[in-house]
Design a protein that fits this description.
Elements lengths: L1 E5 L5 H9 L5 E6 L3 H11 L2 E3 L2 H7 L4 E4 L6 H10 L3 E5 L6 H14 L3 E4 L6 H11 L6 E9 L4 H5 L20 H11 L4 E7 L10 E7 L5 E7 L9 E6 L2 E6 L4 E7 L2 E7 L15 H16 L7 H20 L3 E2 L2
Parallel strand pairs: 1-2, 1-4, 2-3, 4-5, 5-6, 7-10
Antiparallel strand pairs: 7-11, 8-9, 8-15, 9-10, 11-12, 12-13, 13-14
Length: 338
């Protein structure tokens, strides 16, 4: 499959490495308006540089685009790619709003092309182990779940791109950018809540969106959940997810690649470990392994004419939950999640 990468920000080199490490995948083109950076990128990673996205769609000879652009460009670029007959792999978050996600899904379905969303944490081995155990009922009935993203970003980080920290371009702050991976994992592992009560604040950065959020989650089966997220926690702490059930607990120290088990019957305490990949303090302190596994699934899914493991419908759920959190915080009330 011939890929074109659109946008060459922080995450684009990770996509390039994932393409290189995927059988039957090749990087044939890159689009960015910055000629010097574009030519340097293709010199290192391969492909042909295009200054214009529409020119790339028309003349690059690509089968799929990998969108690594600011959030506000995800929907229009995905829709344009689908109209041109190209498959779409979109970085997180899928879009700024659930409505934009719906438009992307509809466009790709009309065109008969594959839509995938980059939530690579689902492919990490500890995540898979935890998913299998929860689905098998190892913890009994779930009572309490949480996702904690207590990271640190400097003012210079927010100044590094004019789209950062803005409602128009980013669609929000810490929830839709940094915490979205943990939120997606929480939904994948424990299901979608039905109600949310939230508070957001801008505590320590000169930005218009939130750098701190707390959300109380209520589930249809009566269990409770919590999301807490901030980019004001110096020096930045590894993300963590917690699952407490009637028959035991699992604490996923994701940012430290450690999964801690405490099972009640039969009694068992154990720890699983893997390679660390976390952006708690620095955005690019991550490996390409998760991206590579996700991209391989995307390529195979397209060849087999099936949905990838993280398709547009899966990508939409975290955006819908974040959107509900924002509405709850703005209204100061509990919101039902549609």
């Amino acid at each position: 499959m011939r890929f074109a990468i659109v946008g060459i920000g922080n995450i684009a080199p990770v996509h390039a490495r994932a393409i290189q490490d995927t059988p039957d995948a090749e990087l044939v083109a890159v689009a960015t308006r910055d000629e010097a950076r574009g030519r340097a990128f293709v010199a290192e990673h391969g492909g042909v540089w295009f200054a214009d996205y529409q020119e790339l769609l028309a003349h690059a000879g690509a089968d799929a685009v990998s969108l690594c652009t600011p959030h506000d460009l995800h929907a229009p670029m995905a829709i344009a790619a689908a109209a041109a007959g190209l498959h779409v792999l979109c970085e997180k978050p899928m879009a700024r709003t659930a409505a934009e996600c719906d438009a992307m899904i509809a466009a790709c379905e009309r065109a008969g092309v594959t839509l995938g969303v980059v939530f690579q944490s689902r492919f990490e081995q500890l995540s898979v182990n935890l998913k299998n155990a929860l689905d098998a009922g190892r913890l009994g009935r779930l009572l309490w779940v949480s996702a904690n993203t207590l990271w640190h970003r400097t003012d210079a980080y927010y100044r590094s791109g004019p789209w950062r920290g803005t409602w128009e371009h980013e669609g929000g702050g810490v929830l839709i950018n940094q915490a979205i991976h943990a939120i997606d994992l929480l939904i994948w592992l424990a299901g979608m809540p039905v109600r949310v009560t939230a508070r957001t604040r801008t505590l320590n950065h000169p930005i218009e969106v939130e750098d701190a959020a707390l959300a109380l989650l209520e589930y249809a089966d009566g269990r409770l959940g919590l999301i807490q997220a901030t980019t004001a926690a110096f020096p930045g702490y590894p993300e963590r997810l917690e699952f407490f059930g009637s028959q035991g607990s699992a604490v996923y120290h994701k940012g430290q690649a450690r999964l801690e088990w405490h099972l009640a019957d039969p009694h068992e305490d154990r720890i699983e470990e893997a390679e660390v990949s976390s952006g708690a303090a620095r955005p690019m302190d991550i490996t390409a392994a998760g991206h590579t596994a996700l991209l391989r699934d995307f390529v195979v899914a397209t060849r087999e004419n099936r949905s990838p493991q993280v398709d547009g419908h899966a990508g939409r759920r975290s955006v819908a939950l974040v959107e509900a959190i924002y509405r709850s915080a703005a209204m100061g009330s509990t919101i039902a999640i549609e």
